[in-house]
């Protein structure tokens, strides 16, 4: 008969549930994935929290212009129209992302879907998120800023990019003091891409100066990218297709015409 094994002297008996578990070794690739996830969560937490606004449609619509940021597919505000509904609220700024409309999530939704959602109600409830990150439009990485005119204007001088071009305006100098310098966004030799949501890459110098003169506040987009190819490119030719003349016919005349066409086919 086999004798039961005896416990060594001084050792306490342990049940299987009390057996010590083997230590786990975390592989480097697993540790790296966890670190990346933590960084992503930390980055998301660092973003501005969303906020909701109910805007009432007025003579200027909702009082803002929007466009798609090609960097992430989100729709963002490119201009807050003075005295419009968005400006009256006071909390909506250039660059803000549109997150949802009437509780309908629209992050990275097609632009047409966002426009349709905004137009589906006279008083849409919009969820925004503040964002000051660069915005990519037409393949151009732009920096954005909102400037309010001071005693010395907007604090910048402008000129044509090149004497051989009729359009394409650049910042020739950011003055030591003024709104442009204080923004920290605009620098010497930046190209002006848009003002108040209007693309000015192919606007003349006089047109840009006129906008700056009449405005007391501007939403401006600038870039340091090489945009000469875009500016100097000729406009795309438009297809000229003959249009059939529109005529207004009575129901009786339309019926007679239809009967004549059927008779000719027989």
How would you summarize the topology of this molecule?
Elements: H1 28-46, E1 51-54, E2 64-68, E3 75-80, H2 85-89, E4 97-101, E5 104-105, H3 111-118, E6 125-129, E7 135-137, E8 140-148, E9 156-160, E10 169-174, H4 179-183, E11 191-195, E12 198-199, H5 205-214, E13 217-223, H6 228-232, H7 251-265
Antiparallel strand pairs: 1-6, 2-3, 4-5, 4-6, 7-8, 8-13, 9-10, 11-12, 11-13
Supply the number of helical segments.
Answer: 7
Biggest pleated sheet = 5 strands, antiparallel
How many individual β-strands?
13
Radius of gyration: 32 Å
Question: What is the succession of H and E elements?
Answer: HEEEHEEHEEEEEHEEHEHH
| Shape assignment | globular
Average pLDDT for all residues? 79
With strands numbered from the N-terminus, the spatial order across the biggest sheet is 7-8-13-11-12
End-to-end CA span: 112 Å
């Amino acid at each position: 008969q086999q004798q039961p094994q005896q416990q060594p002297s001084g050792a306490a008996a342990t049940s299987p549930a009390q057996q010590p578990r083997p230590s786990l070794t975390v592989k480097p690739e697993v540790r790296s994935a966890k670190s990346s996830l933590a960084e992503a969560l930390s980055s998301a937490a660092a973003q501005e929290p969303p906020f909701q606004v109910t805007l009432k449609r007025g003579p200027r619509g909702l009082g803002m212009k929007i466009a798609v940021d090609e960097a992430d597919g989100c729709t963002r505000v490119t201009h807050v129209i003075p005295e419009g509904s968005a400006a009256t609220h006071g909390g909506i700024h250039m660059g803000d992302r549109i997150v949802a409309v009437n509780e309908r999530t629209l992050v990275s939704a097609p632009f047409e879907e966002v426009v349709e959602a905004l137009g589906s109600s006279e008083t849409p409830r919009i969820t925004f998120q503040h964002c000051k990150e660069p915005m990519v439009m037409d393949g151009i990485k732009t920096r954005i800023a909102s400037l309010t005119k001071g005693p010395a204007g907007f604090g910048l001088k402008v000129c044509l990019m090149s004497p051989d071009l009729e359009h394409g305006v650049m910042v020739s100098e950011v003055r030591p003091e003024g709104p442009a310098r204080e923004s920290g966004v605009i620098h010497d030799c930046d190209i002006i891409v848009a003002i108040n949501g209007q693309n000015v890459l192919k606007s003349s110098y006089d047109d840009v100066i006129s906008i700056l003169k009449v405005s007391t506040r501007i939403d401006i987009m600038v870039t340091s990218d090489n945009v000469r190819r875009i500016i100097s490119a000729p406009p795309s030719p438009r297809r000229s297709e003959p249009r059939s003349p529109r005529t207004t016919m009575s129901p009786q005349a339309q019926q007679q015409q239809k009967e004549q066409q059927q008779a000719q086919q027989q």
